[in-house]
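STRUCTURE:
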């Protein structure tokens, strides 16, 4: 049995009563805590306090007794004891299935239910309470014997959350005594648990899917290439191994056996790492780009990602064709943009009974052609542009007697270019002189006085005169008195 002491009972003041009259009375009972649940009854007396001592009942004072009765109840909250979120992968948000229930198992209404979240832990690993969400965030009033269904729980797992069984303890309470967000001892509460099993996920991601090993000559071994990757799972990765394949260029191959790779011993979740790959020595294969896709870097637990590899087998000469001589030109020669990017290539040539080409050859990284621009002259003296030069022409013609081949005609031919070197278009520029005669018989051609010059002024249409060493070029852009040449051609 438990008692509510008389001191906890306070009656409101009463006025005097006339004969036959009545008046309402008020009483306040303060229930202590803890207070055993149950019905409390107490005999109370109201009396007419007209005899001394005042404030004290004397048996001869008129009185009446009555029973004051109060029922003390208790708020009781019941929550599904373990809210199971199942076995889940990291890097996603998961909700409990099925929903869980909050039950008011007492007779009194729950008026202001609030959640108090705890962290979920697995050994030394933690899922912060800030990653846990309970719903509803605010409850309606739940009457005695009522329930709220469904309540739900969501847990956001980071991509690198360590595997394990995580358990957290949380509290749901009625913040009714003092609405302060704090659980007082007289406020009803219920603790319950959540559980989630974080699966172990092995995953790695290569930072680049296209790995170029650069340009190398036959016989060379490529410089070590750092191939970056990241452990994108939540398991520590070990035992890395590459699956290499032959690099192909048409029917030519560089064997996968020439690959070498260094790999890290162990990479923790979320960490970046590199594998260092070399290829070589490169076999005697034709120049060009050798590539292949489907390479696999694998780690423990089935972690794997794929990429492609390529290497350029460089050749020292551009792919111009037979019967040519060539010279590499410094790229800075052609660095000026228009309108100051005009150049003239000119030369004394004798096509004999064949044909001669002079021009600029633009070579790609693998020395294949990105374009040939220049001028071709045949035995008849007919000239044709190669590519799209700005201008072509014949400056002068002279006859000469060759002791072996007899009378020959020499032409000073030229091509003008508006050319600014761009590494997007070509990786190198070559000056090319070519015997373009038929290959069915022996043809001789002669070249002399090859001159590459920058225009003295924009839109200059013809080269200056040929000369060894420095020369003075007239700034006069007009034609000479004879009308055949410009002054600057003198
Ligand atoms: Ca009295
Ligand atoms: Ca409170």
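SEQUENCE:
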């Amino acid at each position: 049995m438990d008692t509510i002491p008389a001191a906890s009972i306070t009656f409101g003041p009463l006025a005097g009563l006339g004969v036959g009259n009545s008046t309402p009375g008020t009483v306040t009972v303060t229930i202590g805590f803890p207070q055993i649940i149950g019905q409390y009854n107490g005999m109370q007396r109201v009396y007419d306090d007209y005899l001394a001592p005042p404030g004290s009942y004397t048996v001869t004072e008129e009185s009446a007794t009555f029973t004051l009765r109060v029922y003390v109840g208790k708020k009781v909250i019941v929550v599904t004891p373990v809210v199971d979120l199942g076995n889940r992968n990291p890097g996603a948000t998961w909700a409990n299935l099925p929903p869980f229930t909050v039950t008011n198992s007492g007779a009194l209404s729950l008026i202001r239910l609030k959640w108090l979240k705890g962290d979920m832990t697995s050994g030394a690993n933690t899922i912060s309470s800030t990653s846990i969400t309970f719903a509803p965030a605010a409850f309606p009033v739940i009457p005695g014997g009522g329930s709220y269904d469904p309540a739900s729980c969501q847990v956001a797992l980071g991509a690198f959350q360590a595997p394990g069984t995580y358990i957290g303890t949380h509290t749901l309470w009625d913040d009714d005594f003092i609405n302060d967000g704090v659980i007082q001892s007289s406020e009803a509460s219920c603790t319950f648990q959540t559980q989630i099993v974080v699966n172990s996920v092995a995953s790695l991601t290569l930072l680049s899917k296209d790995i170029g090993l650069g340009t190398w000559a036959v016989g060379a071994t490529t410089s070590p290439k750092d191939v970056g990757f990241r452990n994108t799972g939540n398991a520590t990765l070990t035992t890395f191994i590459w699956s290499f394949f032959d690099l192909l260029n048409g029917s030519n191959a560089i064997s996968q056996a020439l690959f070498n790779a260094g790999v890290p011993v162990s990479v923790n979740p979320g960490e970046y790492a590199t594998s260092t790959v070399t290829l070589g020595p490169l076999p005697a294969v034709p120049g060009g780009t050798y590539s292949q896709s489907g390479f696999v870097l694998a780690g423990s637990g089935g972690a794997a990602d794929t990429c492609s590899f390529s290497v350029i087998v460089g050749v020292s000469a551009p792919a111009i064709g037979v019967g040519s001589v060539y010279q590499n030109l410094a790229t800075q020669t052609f660095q000026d943009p228009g309108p100051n990017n005009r150049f003239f290539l000119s030369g004394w040539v004798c096509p004999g009974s064949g044909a001669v080409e002079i021009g600029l050859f633009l070579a790609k990284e693998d020395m294949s052609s990105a374009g040939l621009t220049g001028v071709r002259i045949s035995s008849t003296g007919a000239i044709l542009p190669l590519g799209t030069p700005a201008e072509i022409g014949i400056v002068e013609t002279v006859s000469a007697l060759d002791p072996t081949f007899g009378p020959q005609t020499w032409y000073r031919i030229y091509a003008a270019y508006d050319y600014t070197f761009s590494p997007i278009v070509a990786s190198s520029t070559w000056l090319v002189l070519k015997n373009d005669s038929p290959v069915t018989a022996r043809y001789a051609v002669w070249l002399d006085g090859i001159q590459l010059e920058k225009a003295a002024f924009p839109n200059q249409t013809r080269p200056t005169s040929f000369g060894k060493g420095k020369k003075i070029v007239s700034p006069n852009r007009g034609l000479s008195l004879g009308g055949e040449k410009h002054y600057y051609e003198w």
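REMARK: The radius of gyration is 49 Å.
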